[in-house]
Amino acid sequence: MWLEDQKIRFLPIDGREPLRKINAPVEWNRAYEKYKQDIRLPTHLKTKQEEITWLLLYAIRLEYTDNAEQYRPITGAKKLEEEATKSSIPEVQSTNPFDAFDFTSADFEEGSWKLAERLGIAYHPDHLVSLQAAAKVISSAYSKEALKERVITGQPFPIEQGSGVGLETDQDLGQCARILRLLQIQNIRQLQTTINETIVAVQNVTADPRTDTSLGKYTGNQPVNVDDLKEFRSLVSWLEDQKIRHYTIENREYLKQIGSVEVWEAAYDKYKIDVGLPYELETRQEQLTWLLLHAIRLEYSDNVDTYRPLSGARKVEEQKKSNAPEVKSTNPFDSLDFTNAQFEEGARKLADRLGIAYHPDHLVSLRAAGRVIHDCFNKETLKEPLIAGQPFVLVGAADSSKSNTITTSTTGKPPHTDAERDLEKAAQILRLLQIQNMRSMQTTINETIVAVQNVTADPKTDSALGKVGV
Hints:
This protein is an all-alpha fold and about 475 residues long. Among the domains are: about 1-80, no CATH class; about 165-205; about 230-310, no CATH class; about 340-375, no CATH class. It is built from 20 helices and no strands. It has helices spanning about 1-10, 15-20, 25-40, 50-65, 70, 75-85, 105-120, 125-140, 145-150, 170-205, 230-245, 260-275, 285-300, 305, 310-320, 340-355, 360-375, 380-385, 395-400, 420-455. It holds the Pfam family RLL. InterPro entries: RTRAF.
């Protein structure tokens, strides 16, 4: 009823009254059957889903025809650009344990440089570059194969210094030439590998059967440039030949003569009248849009059995199960394979370097390493002096028998042995740690309360705006 009253408007206002009697099923069904015959809804559409889909497509075509001026400035390229610049990026769950860190934080920046310094990496003004170099060192120098090799010891290769370029003997020059030759061979191998990967990628693209006419797909450029007369004529001819099929096969020959301007223009003017294209649509963009909508409606009518099992909810579900949208990330660790055995070994070696206890899950050790870098290598922590001295020794039960010294308390309490005094000091330490934990928990509770208040105080139900919710 709403589609007829607001969008289609096939019947006059007085003739729509029977369709508005929604609470009277008998009268409404009789009016709906007559309405389907008047609007020429295809008889082979059986279910309500198919009928409402056909009516929606019909309403879209009429809406575009009635508001051609409004839709004229919106081209396909502009629509794609608007969709590409949307701020609402779909949320993609990542298995990267570093996604919770702020890579622009000053503390993280300082920690990255300290980690690079520990791994022997030269300083770089961009801490993310140092972080990428650290990741490469971990994945290469701490892999199982690299750890099997013996550590190179001894003095560096001696090259005598002198005037000129610093290479005075023929022997030194020969050794340098061999080193450069080996490096050149390595670079050539890497280049050949890149060339092979590029060739495979190009073959995969060129082998895509998008131009197979037996599949019923458009064989021209995608997307179509409507300003190019050749592409416009080619698409119109393809739509009539493959989808619309208003003419017989013999009568389509004039539309296929794309190279002859006069013949094609005359055939296209006649075709617009025969297919019922509204005369209000002046530009190629508007006419092509109408023809595409008309072809979609005919395609749906001809293949109802194919589209019948596909409901709207199932279509949305299938789209969700498809490949996740690509989101470009600035995280330098996204290119690493966290399940790789070499990376697992490198993560454990990094945890050993930072003094972190062993854990069977290397990702847990990696998170702990990130927390140590964030907490122990920031500017404020590095300003504090290092704690030096011997650890506090607690006298055990076995050692208490050796010391029988008894002290008398000045408060009148019973005397304590050395072991009891040590236990009392340990209890005081545990009490201080408990107080610290309670303060941390209280801070977390306060932050949670503030977050809840910010949510509940959000005026999304302002009656002055005339809206409820967002």
